[in-house]
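User: Hello, can you help with two protein structures?

Assistant: Certainly.
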Amino acid sequence: MSDNEHPFAQYVRILGKGKNGSRSLTTVESKEAMTMILEGQVRPEQLGAFLMLLRVKEESPEELCGFVQAVREQMTVPDDLRVELDWSTYAGKRNRLPWFFLSALALASDGVSILMHGARGHTTGRVYIEDLLHLFGLKAAKNWLDAELELKHCNLAYVSIDMLNPELSEIINLRPILGLRSPVHTLCRLLNPLDAPYRIDGVFHPAYAPMHQKTAKLLGQNNSVTVKGDGGEAEIKPDSDCSLQWVRNGEYVDDIWPRRFQQRLVKDKQIDTRDLLRLWRGEIDHEYGTGALLETLAVSLKLIGRVEQSDAANKMALDIWEARDKTLY
């Protein structure tokens, strides 16, 4: 083995030099480090040490900004493909169905183009959007041409992180090996591959939400919202006050979205993904599901500037939901 120091060692040293000697990476350093990772220039033990040192320290907005910049430079995206709303979905749902998917479908049916991107399978026992697309006659795009066709078909396309960047997908799937999530889970939510003017994402841990929006501002994403949502997804919990972290016209705003129901609703004993389609078609009633999708739809409408006030957003969300084509899926 050579005595020469590996080029990536400097970044591990910066993060792990000790209580008084370590520091966060600059945006330039984090971009350089992530570029090396994506290009396979890092040894496995270096990658594990790097990710876990960041996890213990907690990544900074400047670091996340550099990571996102590096990933976006590696992606090949059509110049003429545009959407209005970027919707990330990486957490998966454990105890409830992903009712927010119906919010996205309703918004798309009302003329808003949406790119949804996410991952699947990195945590056992969760329901991921990619696994239920087939219920609605949809499929994950294998390439950007597929995504363009889906957008023309229904105003919504789903792409997996495997398609966006296979290297990131491999790192996400290290979670059961490392035992912890890594900063990649956060940076994927912030990718906004098609540079949509509006972006929505979710977190489970409230401390991460302000970091998302501070990073969004550094990336020049001037209109976005991070939801402390059910299971870590961008889904409003209708039986609980919900923390929202906004960037509105480039300004950071901390907000609370009030609960729809004053008392907690009982969770379903078993979840059946077909209930999503049944609710869309009007074949079943589901108090929690309807509340979750309407509140999430209302937040989305406020984000994209259809309305300014929350009451008006809730009314518009109900109108859109009731006017949906129940035979569309």
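That covers the first. Now for the second protein you mentioned:
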Amino acid sequence: MDQRKKINTVRWLHVNVAESTLKMQKQKNIDVRFLMKFKFFIIFLLFLTVFFIGLFYIRQAFMPVSSDGKPQAFMVNKGSSVSLIGKNLEKDGLVKSGIAFKFYVQITNLQNKIQAGEFELSKNLSLIQIVEKLKKGPVEIWVTIPEGLRREEIGMKFKTTLAKDDEFYKEFLEIAKGKEGYLFPETYLFSKDISATQIVNKMTKTFETKVKDITYKQLIVASMLERETLADNEKPIVAGILYKRIENDWPLQVDATLQYIKGDWKPVYSVDKELKSPFNTYKNLGLPPSPISNPGLSSILAAISPEESEYWYYIHDNDGKIHFAKDLNEHNANINKYLD
């Protein structure tokens, strides 16, 4: 009997322990689930907080900086990145965040729609309105005129870049007549409504500012150097050759003068050397009657300060490298070696 009581007691203990363990396990599971839910709740709250803070920041970043509607000039330089434009807008107090500007421009794929030039903006415009203004184009546009163009090419460059009509082009050619050589090659900032007269005046005044003392003869030589040479270091030597030929009554034989007669800069052929024109330096001694292009500063300086040498001839090979010669035999040898 005592033995049976012991067994029952043990069983009762086992059952109680098992039940207690089960209750503890259930309680533990409940606690774990509660903690997990609590963690998710905290994370969700954090997410909502970050989301609404971010939404508030974005909304604020897109709002106008102030109610000031006073027009303000803003410059976009050539080659400026969207990031740099945004930084400059923020620096000038036109947007609240350069980063928000960059983000909006990139997600709307407008980075290639912003031209270089001067824009008229104001602080009462929202970020989106600022972008729309930039997208429409500047009130003033950068126009780069490279060295060596003739007035017809310069006029066409302005016509295309400033979206001008044929009447503007005709007016430009008329006003620039007789000013070949004085239309200084430079990067200019012009408004879209600028006149041909204003452009020509600006270019000639820039020439006067950049070039102090030069004779008309030197300007003609400079205009030929600009078309005949490919590197700045060869210009003084070629200038010396041209002056030496003039002094010794040798024809200059400058191919660029034939191109000028033909009206383009395409390669010349033997038949072109027979063209009847005072600009043909194969048939006429001395300089052509006027400049054949509008030279840059390096060509002008070379024409003013030529370099004496023992050379009388020069050619460029197919890779653009110049080869000088002291006499006709050496010149012909260079032609056979580098051009044939």
